[in-house]
Amino acid sequence: MKKYTSLDDITDLQALIAEARELKKNPYAFEELGKRKRLILLFFNSSLRTRLSTEKAACNLGMDVTVMNFNSDAWKLEFEDGTVMNADTSEHIKEAAQVISQYGDVIAVRAFPTLTDKAKDESEYVISNFVKYASVPVVNMESATAHPLQALADAITITELSQKKRPKVVLSWAPHPKALPHAVANSFIGMMQKMDVDLTVTHPEGYELSDATIQDTPVEYNQDAALKDADFVYVKNWSSYKDYGRVSATPETHSNWMITPEKLGNAQFMHCLPVRRNVIVADAVLDGSNSVVIEQANNRTFSAQVVLKKILENLN
Ligand SMILES: NCCC[C@H](NC(=O)CCC(=O)O)C(=O)O
Ligand SMILES: NC(=O)OP(=O)(O)O
Q1: Dihedral through CA 254, CA 255, CA 261, CA 266, nearest 10?
Q2: Is 234 found in the same domain as 305?
Q3: How much is the pTM?
Q4: What Gene Ontology molecular function terms does this protein carry (predicted)?
Q5: For residue 285, what are the CA distances in angstroms to 37, 98, 115, 225, 290?
Q6: Ligand 2, atom 6: nearest CA belongs to which residue?
Q7: Is the peptide bond before 137 cis (omega within 30 degrees of 0)?
Q8: Is the CB of 174 under 6 A from ligand 1?
Q9: For residue range 220-252, what is the model confidence (pLDDT) as tens digits?
Q10: What is the complex's ipTM, to 2 decimals?
Q11: Whose CA is nearest to atom 15 of ligand 1?
C-alpha cells in the first residue's frame, strides 16, 4: 500500500480484514517490521481514539511515534498557491510537507472540514496537499470528507460479530447540537457498499448525503421502517450536505430520531464515538448488552495496524 487516504487505496478488502483479525490475535508478530521507522501524527482537530489507537498500532509494529497538535503547536499553514503571505499564515505546505518527510517515514493527518466552504472541503485541500508535497506515504486520520481508518474498524467489527452471512445494516442519522462533518457517514457507506451486507440509510428529509456517496444504496425517510429486522444499527449525526453545513432539523425531529432500546430491538448498536448520551442514543442502549461501541473502538488499533503494516511492507 502506497498511502491510505481513501477506501480506494484498498485492493483486497476481505484479505485486509482477515489480516487485521490475525494481528488482533498476535499483535507483536511483526514488531521488527517498523524498527527505526517513525510515524508522525499531525492533528488539526481533537481526538481520543485515533490518536491513542494509531500510536499503539505503530508501537505494536516496532515503530517510533511523534504526535503534534498542529493548531496549537505549529506555525499556521498556507495551502494556496502564489499567496502573498503577509497575513496570518506563517509557513507554506510546500516546505512543511517536505520537511516533515525528512523526519518521518509515514505521515498521518487529521483535518476536519470547514463546513462553510463546500468546494474547498470537497477538494480535500489539507490532505491532498500533504499527499502532493510529502515524499513519504500519507494516512488519513479523518479528513474533510472521509474517515477510512474508522470504516475499516467498522468492517472488522461487523465481520467479527455478524451471525449471518449477509446481515442487515442500517445507518441511522441522529440528532446533535452542533454541525458535524459527513466523513464518518461517507466512509461507512462506502465500506458497506464493498461488503456483502444489506445496507439501508435513514435520515430526515434535508439530510441527503452526496450522490457520489449514496450511489444505489436505498434511502428510507421513515426511521421505524428502516430499522425493522436490522442486525446492526450504526448511528451518526451529520449536518446538511445540500444546505451545506447547516443544522435544519427541528427540536421535535431531534428528539424523535434518538436511538432508544425500543427502536434498536435485537440489533447491535454501533457508533464511532465520541457520542452524546441521551441526544444521539439513550443511556439504556449504551449501557446495555447490544452496544458494541467499546469493541468497535478496540478495533481501531487493528485497523491502523494492518494499514501501517501494508505501508511498511511497501517501504522495505
Ligand atoms: N472521529 C469521530 C467523529 C468526529 C466528529 N465528531 C465530533 O466532532 C463530535 C463532537 C461533539 O460531540 O462535540 C465527526 O462527527 O466527524
Ligand atoms: N472515532 C474517532 O475517530 O474518535 P476520535 O475522534 O476520538 O479520534
Answers
A1: -40
A2: no
A3: 0.98
A4: amino acid binding; ornithine carbamoyltransferase activity
A5: 42, 47, 30, 19, 7
A6: 47
A7: no
A8: no
A9: 999 999 999 999 999 999 999 999 999 977 777
A10: 0.99
A11: 180
